[in-house]
Amino acid sequence: MNTQVTRSWLTDLRVFKQKRVWIIFMLGMASGFPWVMIGSALSAWLQEGGLERSVIGYFGAVFAVYSINVFWSPLIDRVQLPGLSRWLGQRRSWMFTCQLVIVLCCMALSQLDLIGQLTTVGVLALTLATASSTQDVAIDAFRIESFGEDEPRLQSAGAAMATAGWWTGYSGLGAIPFFLVDGTTWQWQDAYIVLGLIMAVIAFLVLFIPEPKRLDFAFQQEREMHYQEKLAHLSNRSRKVITWLTVTIVEPVAEFFRRNGVKLALSVLLFIFLFKVGEAFLGRMSIVFYKEIGFTNDEIGLYSKLINWWVTIFFAVAGSLVNLRLGIVRGLFIGGLAMASSNLFFSWIALSGPNTNMLLAAVVIDGFTGAWSTVAFVAFISLLCHRSFTATQYALMASLGTLGRTVLAAYSGVVVDWLDGDWALFFLLTALMVLPSLLFLFLIRKQLTELELSYHDKQHDQQRS
Questions:
Q1: For the domain that residue 368 is a member of, what is the CATH number?
Q2: Model-level pTM?
Q3: Domain for residue 178, yes or no?
Q4: Is residue 4 domain-resident?
C-alpha cells in the first residue's frame, strides 16, 4: 500500500477521535438495549415458559411501533416537556423521559407471572416498545444535528458508531440476562430488574452530555411564509394552526416527492421497506432456533451476544471506511448480497446439528455482513434527507424500513411451523428475501449514484468556501 493511500485511510480514522462520535456510540447503546427486553430476553422467557413458536412470533408484533413512530415524531421536534426541556434541552428531555418509562416497565415485568399474566406482559412489552421507539426519534435527531451539513466524514462516522453502539446495547449488554439465568437460581423476572437498573444508569449519563444546537432552517421558514400567504383569508389563529400542521407533517413528505419525483421516490421507499426483511425473519427466530437445535443459554450468550457484539463493532467501523471509498450505493449492493449469503450458513448448522465452531463462524460472518449493510443503510437514508426536515424524513424512512422488519417478521414462527420445523429451508427462504429489494436498487442505481455525487460535490464546495 503506497504512502498516499495509507495517509488517506489514517485521515478517515481520525474522525473517530471526535467526542461527538463517542456520544453517539453511547446513545446507540440506549437505542439497542430495549430490543433485548422485548426481543431476545422475552423470547427466551416465553420459550422456557412452554409457549408455542407462533405465539412467540406474534409477541414480536410489539416492534411494529418502531414503524409508526413517524406519526408522533413531529411532537419531539415541536413539543417542549414542562420543566425538563428548559433544563435538558429538546432532545435530551425526550430521551430522558422515555428512558425512565423503560425502567419502570422493566421493574413491572419483574413482578409478573408469565403464564398467569400473559396479557399484562404483552401490554408492558408494547408500552416499553413505544417508549423505546420514541427515544429513537430523539436520538436520531440528536445524531444528525450533532454534525454540520459540511461534515460528511463525521456523518458517516456517526452512522458507524450508532450501529456499533446499538449492537453494544443489544449484544454486549444483551448477554447479561442469559448468563444470569443459566445455571443459577435466578429467574427471568430477576433478570428484568437488572435490565431496568442498567437502563437507569444510561438515563443518568444522558444528563451530562451536551445538547446539540438546533439548526434554524431557512427553507422551513420559507415554506411557513408560503402557507401563511395562501391562508391569508383565514383568521390569525386558524392560519397559524394550519400552517404549523402543514409544515410539520405534510411538507416533509411533499418535499421528498417533489425533489426526487414520484417514480424514484416510490422505488426508494419500496427498497427501504424490503431490504431488511430476511434479516428480521432470521433474527426473530434465532434464539428459538439456537435453543431447539441444542445450544445452551451460556453458549447463546457467548456466541450470539458477546462475540457478535465485538464483530459488529469492528465491521461497522470498517464498513463505514469502505463505503467512503466505494460509495453508498455500491456498498448497499455488496452488503445486501453478503447479508443474504450469510443466512445460508445457518442452514448448514440446522443440517449438521449444534457445533460451537460452526456457530462461531456463523456469528462472525453474520456480524460482518449485518454491520456493513446496516451502516450503508443508515448512511443511505441520511443522504436522502433534506436538511430542513432531517428528523421527520429520517423517521419516515426508518419507520418504513422497520415496518418491513417487524410486521412481516411477526409471522416468522408461523413460517417455521408451516415448514414443519425445517430450519434449513427457513434460512434459505430468508436469504432469498433480500433479492426483491436489490432489484429495486439496481433499477434506480443511476439516479441514486448521481444524487450521491451531487451531495459530495456540494459538501466539497462548502468546505472550499
A1: 1.20.1250.20
A2: 0.74
A3: yes
A4: no
The answer to whether the CB of 173 falls within 8 A of the CB of 200 is no
Q: Which pLDDT does position 37 carry in this prediction?
A: 86
Instruction: Say if CB 327 and CB 449 are below 8 A apart.
Output: yes
Calpha distance 330→326 (Å, rounded): 6
**pLDDT tens track for 88-139:** 888 899 999 999 999 999 999 888 877 777 788 888 888 999 999 999 998 9
Domain that holds residue 323: 13-459
Give me the sign of the Cα torsion angle 269, 214, 220, 138. positive
pLDDT digits 0-9 by tens, 287-325: 788 878 777 777 777 776 667 677 777 877 777 777 666
Cα atoms in the Cβ-side hemisphere of radius 13 Å centred on 154: 18
Secondary structure element (H or E) that encloses residue 372, with its range? helix 356-384
- Residue 447 and residue 265 in contact, taking contact as beta carbons nearer than 8 Å: no
In-domain check, residue 98 = yes
| pLDDT for res 225 | 83
Q: Answer yes or no: are the C-beta atoms of 375 and 319 closer than 8 Å.
A: yes
31-70: b (≥16 Cβ within 10 Å) or e: bbbbbbbbbbbbbbbbbeeebebbebbbbbbbbbbbbbbb
Decide if 7 is inside a domain: no
